[in-house]
Input
Amino acid sequence: MKISMQRGVAMLTLILGLFSTNAFSQSPDKINGEWINDQHDKKILFHKAGDGTYEGEMIWSKETKAKPGQTIIKGLKYKDNKYTGGQLYLPARDEWVKCSAVLKNDNTLEITGSKSMFSKTVTWTK
Output
């Protein structure tokens, strides 16, 4: 009887594990759409580029050096519920830095820019 009970528990654990994995996996295209930063002074539009990566285009910004229509994020590749390998343009410094992003939920995106040993993460919402 103990063996049957142990097998039953093991089978149930396996089944629940499979369902929970599917529930937490995301569609790569969930990043697509309009996002506004936590200071509400920039809005970008994410879309899938022709090469299959994801990029963000400036819609509007209070910052005068950022231009509407300008690509400010490019080259993000989706893998394991993360977007990595991208580049982020910093208009105020006129430079590109490394970039990655993580969807925390359907309406919250964390974008991290890094250069050398320095990094900064900002939160964007839909």
Notes: The two ends are 53 Å apart (CA to CA).
